[in-house]
Amino acid sequence: MMKDMFEETAERVLGDLITPELIIASENGAWPEGLWHAVEENGLGLAAAPESSGGVGGSWHDAFVLIRAAGRHSAPVPLAETILVNWLLGLAGLDAAPGSATLAATGGDLADGRFSGTLGDIPWGGQAGHVLAVAGGNLVLLSSADGSRTGAFNAAREPRDTLTFDSASPVALAPLPASWPPETLLLGGAMIRSAQIAGGLGRLLDTAIDYANQRIQFGRAIGKFQAIQHQLALLAEQTALASAAAEMAFAASETAPSPAAIAAAKAVASEAAGQGAAIAHAVLGAIGFTYEHDLHFTTRRLWSWRSEFGSQSYWAQDVGRRLCRQGESGVWPAIMAMTPARAAKG
Amino acid sequence: MRLTDFAYAPIPADAEVFRREVRDFLSREMRDIPPIQRADSWMGYDAEFSRKLGAAGLIGITMPKRFGGREAGAFARYVISEELLAAGAPVSAHWIADRQSAPLLLHFGTPAQQERYIPGIVRGETYFGIGMSEPNAGSDLASIGSRAVRNGDGWVLNGRKIWTTNAHRSHYMIALVRTEAQADDRHGGMSQFIIDLQAPGVTVRPIRDLTGAEHFNEIFFDDVALDPEALVGTEGKGWAQVMAELAFERSGPERFLSSMTLLHTLVEEIGAEPDSLQAFQIGRIGARLMALRAMSLSVTAQLDQGEDPAWAASCVKDIGTALEQEMPEIAQLLSASEPRVDSGSDHQQVLAYLTQLAPCFSLRGGTREILRGILARGLGLR
User: Fold this and answer.
1) Touching B: A residues 19-78, CB under 8 Å
2) Do A213 and B3 touch (CB under 8 A)?
3) Superfamily name and number for A2-175
4) Mind listing the pLDDT tens digit for each residue in B208-230?
5) B263 touches chain A (CB under 8 A)
6) Which of residues 139-168 of B touch A (CB under 8 A)?
7) What is the ipTM score, two decimals?
């Protein structure tokens, strides 16, 4: 199965190459050239782009495990963003972006085929070669180099830049497919962050279990204490919830981002991120609060990703308004409609 | 735990076809059932409803055709279950027999037992209770003291069971009892028996719950004669059989859909334009229901493939019951409606009822603490 192959490749490439030193260097502004080279060599960024546009031809659902793995390993590159952008470009009939790509959830203006606007909160905006944006009902792929950059960083010191474009010529342009919601890029971003959160939580769970089985206090491993066991059970539950919700959103979005499923997934994952990070820190105690320990690479990302592309509150309210609009008899069908009856592929 | 335990499992098309059937049935049979009765959900007892559901071919759907079943898979049963629960159908008469007694008998029972009990279950006419807890064995199930002693070909049973839902209006109980004195192996020496609740020596005493209703019971066994055909499965292997049964008991949609009536009346109460707090909390419930449904489907796929998803089932139940317990808390935060009994609006009555019922959600079928212990074991902590 494509999904198993993706998971295996992601674990090999990301697991081997991403070290704490690499993440620290990235947080200090270095671009991990070797890692990105390996990502490209293995075609990871093109996983869900159709073969006709130069991609690998995996389904969007298959790409879920790759993006979850990117979260698990705190990949200090725009891998999730590149996979998303190339998938969307492919659906819109455009070729995959060469190199790395990212997206802007806020739009700009298109006049005489030229793009102008200030796009904020762009993940890796200064590093990614291209930025996908929406303008005037069009999907617009821009060269990042054409924008002037104002740097910013999330709590994990991942770049979240602002790029200002003034009459830039798009690299590619296509009308937003009619079936796509206008907030497609916000939804796409929320979807990849949900999967990354699930991966990050899985990492926290493994780390916290290892620690609880090794750390001896009162003459036994702290994992033998019921209080710790129940905390870790809750962490496992939050991990399972986030992963199941995120995967459901991917499966529901095979031909276009599915608004209700993504809203639900991001609301669940964002809440899980905060709860999971708190439990992991409680179990690891003071050592988990040091820079020296790896834990913070994941927890600082979870605290950032949960807010990006819409917070828990933003998306939960979106789900709530949808349900209330349905009225009493429409609530159950609406909840069911968030989960597709059948996967498109795989 | 592996995240693959909750990998996405779509409902196959051959199971999805049952949705139309059950919805058609519900649109006919639920017309006159008011919200306060729907709030009972799988606690609601209505033998006539169960018989009609059986006649419509919607009970025991996974059972062999020779017993009246339709040989469908676990997903078909899932589809039927979630539709019944979402509608608040009164399914408690047959629920346990359909959910766990019939599968247990199909798996471990003799051909004669299967022939004798399963067709009645499938028709919605034969009802079962579960005999696990005892006054001195609640969460610590292995400390049960009810004991069946060999007597000729059969056994003589003495002891007590407690908290058995519907024992006062069911035909049989499948009870876990001791057939050997407690040995070093705490889980050895136990066996499962089918007990006719009308048999001499069986006394059923309903216990009123805090709402004043009678759902559960205490059952006394005084020299109850059990014939050889009463034993289910293998003598001494009762514990393992019960653990397999619990996966069916814990993973199903009743662990997160049994309070749907409250969500329905709450949405009706709030109307089409919620304020931000209302939208947030309703959305939070809806999003979790979506995620739990995804998890439950994944467990269903494992059951369908004959795996034992005990860990994942415990996970679904613990998250599901926590959500259901939050629902009345959220409902009373979001609207000014006060809870009302035998008076007031539909929403007020449903709120009052489920507020009172909520504590039992994390007790029945395994307490929160027991489930988290199972999860911890699965995580490699004990």
Assistant:
1) 61, 68
2) no
3) Butyryl-CoA Dehydrogenase, subunit A, domain 2 (2.40.110.10)
4) 999 999 999 999 999 999 999 99
5) yes
6) none
7) 0.95
